[in-house]
Amino acid sequence: MLLDIDWNIEFNTNGKRYRLAILDSCEVFSSVDNLADTATIVLPEAIMNEVLNFENKIARGTSVLIQFGYNQELQTEFTGFIRDITVNDSSLKILCEDSLFLFRKSVPNAELKPTTLKSIAQYIIDNVDPSFKLDCTYDISYEKFTINQANGYDVLRKLQEETKANIYFDNEAKVLNIHPPYIEKGGTVFYSMQKNIENSSLEFKNRLDTKVEITVESTDVKGNVKKTTSGTTGGEQITLKVGSVDDKSLQAIADAELLKRSAPRYEGTFDTWLVPMVKPTYSARIKDEDYPDKTAYYYVETVVTSISSTGGVRTITPGIKLS
User: Fold this and answer.
1) Do 196 and 280 reside in the same domain of the chain?
2) For 220-278, what is each residue's pLDDT tens digit?
């Protein structure tokens, strides 16, 4: 069956919709390790010696819709906003970011105590864009959390760094999601080294003999340092420092980091086509007929999707083994 690559990129400015008619390449990057999905649209700077003119049509803050597919069957790959437009090396680049773009606004200084991860995130929403909803399933409690001369992005980044939470936006539903790592599951996809994987640098790491000891330290409101550990005494020692969270939250953060570092997993990436659709949090069943013992479901951590004159490619980074 012959598959012809198709795409649709639209911009919306003040209620006026513009459809892109030319394209050099486009890449969409999505990862559970990043707060935002991003997209880079590359255009030639000029066509037939005539410079492209986007004046009054697109600019920073213009909304963006990106769709890819085959034979006119398109799937939405990205929705968000233009963050910057640059010109270099005879090309024009349109840099886009998902709804995190809207949260790069300052929030009032505050000292929240006691508080929770959920309450902090709701404070950010209430002071940046109350039209967003919050879906938070991560039970982390802080004795005190201070916000000082920060914007919404700064606070969300700190929360992600400290708690190891999976934080991302559902742009179309206008929902800020915050969940424990590896708990939330998206869809299910199937891959075979012999059928629909084009290139692979995957290397299986069993890690059954890997010894890791995670220590998480926190300083309470009185200045006292408390710590908790997870893992095997005598193993590789990793220390994390977080804010003034309670004992239960300390243990949850330590256990999450231990899972990330000690669970069996694939390391590396593999390339496949635009179908099936896959996103971070999906469960990918990866089969290799030459090594049937490695066939299992793996957590999808990162997906990079790109199209150009040579076709469409998804580069997938799987994570820990699920089953």
Assistant:
1) yes
2) 888 889 999 998 888 789 999 988 898 899 999 999 889 888 889 999 999 999 999 99
Of the three residues 179, 195, 226, the one that is the final residue of a domain is 179
Calculated CA dihedral for residues 16, 19, 23, 25, nearest 10 degrees: 80
Percent of the chain topping pLDDT 70: 95
Contact 69, 95 (CB under 8 A): no
The number of residues making up the chain comes to 323
What's the CA gap between 296 and 280, in Å, rounded? Answer: 17
Distance in angstroms (rounded) separating the CA atoms of residues 73 and 29: 21
How many domains does one find in the chain?
A: 3
Predicted local confidence at residue 232, as pLDDT: 86
- Contact predicate 137/178, CB 8 Å: yes
| Domain CATH for 20 | 2.30.110.10
CB 76 within 8 A of CB 64: no
Question: What pLDDT does residue 8 have?
Answer: 96
Q: Using one digit for the tens of pLDDT, what is the confidence trace for 61-73?
A: 999 999 999 998 9
Lowest mean pLDDT among 197-211, 259-273, 302-316: 197-211
C-beta neighbour count of 142 within 10 angstroms: 25
Does residue 7 register a pLDDT over 90? yes
Q: pTM value?
A: 0.92
